[in-house]
Design goal:
Order of helices and strands: EHEHEEHEEHHHEH
Strand order of the largest sheet: 2-5-1-6-7
Subcellular location: Cytoplasm; Nucleus
GO molecular function: AMP kinase activity; ATP binding; ATP hydrolysis activity
Family: Belongs to the adenylate kinase family. AK6 subfamily.
Shape: globular
Distance between the termini: 19 Å
Low-confidence stretches: none
Catalytic activity: AMP + ATP = 2 ADP; ATP + H2O = ADP + phosphate + H(+)
Largest sheet: 5 strands, parallel
Number of strands: 7
Helix content: 40-55%
Number of helices: 7
Radius of gyration: 16 Å
Keywords: ATP-binding, Cytoplasm, Kinase, Nucleotide-binding, Nucleus, Ribosome biogenesis, rRNA processing, Transferase
Length: 175
């Protein structure tokens, strides 16, 4: 399904702690796009099915999230960030960025967030096993999925530059 938009939609995904929200915020701000932080929206708009006390997080209701953002996504010009990606409609995105982070760096970031040990171990295992990358590759056309390293400040700057260039190329191809 090929949807014609005036502005692209970008998904930035990856294991918690890989820098999705920071990168998405910068990309959205620098390119006059909307930043949609799915985790924040789930909490603020009550797009969940309650609280998971084991992992200390809300249980996301995928249908509620999709219903909430369908009209916004059709218009384009959005940078969405979330740690999951396989349940979003494929038609929503023109580019899917999967951020990857060195395990030691990721562990430090999750500890600074005061994640419980079970949650840290679960997220480190997901990063080691490339769970989010596999989900992205299985859910979207391979040519729109890009894996980017996100362990250092230099990586972040390189990622910003890569995405800015991609957006410029998108406009040249589509407008």
């Amino acid at each position: 399904m090929n949807i014609k938009r005036n502005r692209p939609n970008i998904l930035i995904t990856g294991t918690p702690g890989t820098g999705k929200t920071s990168l998405a915020g910068v990309i959205a701000s620098n390119n006059e796009m909307n930043h949609i932080d799915i985790s924040a929206a789930v909490k603020e708009k009550e797009l969940h099915d309650g609280w998971d006390s084991e992992f200390q997080c809300y249980i996301l209701d995928e249908d509620k999230v999709c219903d909430e953002f369908e009209d916004i996504m059709v218009k384009g010009g959005n940078v969405v960030d979330h740690h999951g990606c396989e349940w979003f409609p494929e038609r929503w995105f023109d580019l899917v960025i999967v951020l990857r982070t060195d395990i030691q760096v990721l562990n430090e970031r999750l500890e600074k967030r005061n994640y419980i040990p079970l949650k840290i171990t679960n997220n480190l295992d997901c990063e080691i096993m490339q769970v989010i990358l596999e989900e992205a590759l299985n859910s979207y056309k391979e040519n729109i999925v890009v894996e980017l390293q996100s362990s250092t400040l230099e990586d972040s700057e390189n990622n910003q530059n890569f995405i800015a260039q991609w957006i410029q190329n998108w406009f040249e191809r589509n407008n």
